[in-house]
């Protein structure tokens, strides 16, 4: 029974991964086109300024 459940789980994980590949591919194409056009996709990183405590 345990091996059947593990096999079923692996099949579900595999099928979800296969289903998501075209979605991820399309997202990467859109993201690359936006970057090519100069869009800033992510906010600039804010660096924490360290100040010593007296």
UniProtKB/TrEMBL annotation:
Entry superkingdom: Bacteria
Lineage: Bacteria, Pseudomonadati, Pseudomonadota, Alphaproteobacteria, Hyphomicrobiales
Protein name, entry field: Uncharacterized protein
Origin species: Bradyrhizobium ottawaense
């Amino acid at each position: 029974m345990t091996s059947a459940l593990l096999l079923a789980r692996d099949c579900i994980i595999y099928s979800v991964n296969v289903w998501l590949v075209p979605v991820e591919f399309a997202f990467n194409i859109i993201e690359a086109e936006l970057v090519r056009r100069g869009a800033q996709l992510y906010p600039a990183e804010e660096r924490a300024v360290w100040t010593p405590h007296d």
